[in-house]
Design goal:
mainly alpha
C-alpha cells in the first residue's frame, strides 16, 4: 500500500477518535476509492486489523 494511502487511513481513524466524523469519512473515502486494484486487499486487511484504532489511540 502506498504511504499516502496508509497515512490517509490513519488520519481518518484520528479524526474519528476526535469526533470529526464528516472529515473522517471524507478522508477515508478518498483513500479507499483511490486505492489501486492491488491495494484494495491491503486496505481491506488494514481496516480489519486496525478497526480499534477508530475507537482508541493505538499508541496507548
Amino acid at each position: 500500500m502506498r504511504p499516502s494511502t496508509r497515512a490517509a487511513l490513519e488520519r481518518s481513524a484520528e479524526l474519528t477518535r476526535s469526533g470529526r466524523l464528516v472529515e473522517a469519512v471524507e478522508v477515508g473515502e478518498r483513500a479507499i476509492t483511490g486505492a489501486t486494484d492491488t491495494e484494495v486487499p491491503e486496505v481491506t486487511k488494514w481496516l480489519h486489523d486496525h478497526a480499534d484504532d477508530f475507537l482508541r489511540d493505538p499508541r496507548g
